[in-house]
Amino acid sequence: MATITKKELVNRIAEKTGQTKIVAKEILQTFLDEIVRELSLGNRLEFRDFGVFEVKPRRARRAQNPRTLQKVEVPPKRVVKFKVGRVMRDHVSDGLARQEARAAGAGGGDAAKGAAAPPTS
Q1: Which whole-number Å values give the CA distances from 1 to 5, 76, 96, in the listed order?
Q2: pTM for the full predicted model
């Protein structure tokens, strides 16, 4: 599994659209800035089939420092939640199935090849 950076996404977008990397980077950065701006205003962002970003409040709570075991008060805060959309969920699930199939195929066992063909006479 690889980590894809913003730079890599900019390169892909520039290549697919025929735009310069500078233009692609400005568009991508503007898009990300607008997502942050809307979420900071408490707005919900819905991208059909991709997913939904929304801000949810988190209550204050008592926690424990694992190193010192000291009780600590954690203040209330707002957190961003993401609910995956149907198309993304299906693509990611299919991607996992393909990875598992490739891993099974790399094993070289009979299970990876499927059922053996019956012998012919």
Answers
A1: 13, 35, 11
A2: 0.69
Please state the rounded mean pLDDT for residues 61-82: 95
CA–CA separation, 114 and 121 (whole Å): 21
Query: What is the arithmetic mean of pLDDT over 47-60?
Result: 95
* CA-wise closest residue to 1 among 120, 95, 112: 95
Give dist(CA 81, CA 86) in Å, integer. 16
Burial of 51 (0-12, 13-18, 19+ CB in 10 A): middle
* Contacts of 51 by beta carbon, 8 Å cutoff, 6+ apart: 82, 83, 84, 85, 88
CB of 76 closer than 8 Å to CB of 56: no
How far is Cα 48 from Cα 85, in angstroms, rounded to an integer? Answer: 7
Amino acid letter for position 88: M
Integer CA distances (angstroms), 12 to 3, 50, 87, 95, 103, in order: 14, 19, 21, 20, 27
Q: Are the C-beta atoms of 85 and 49 separated by less than 8 Å?
A: yes
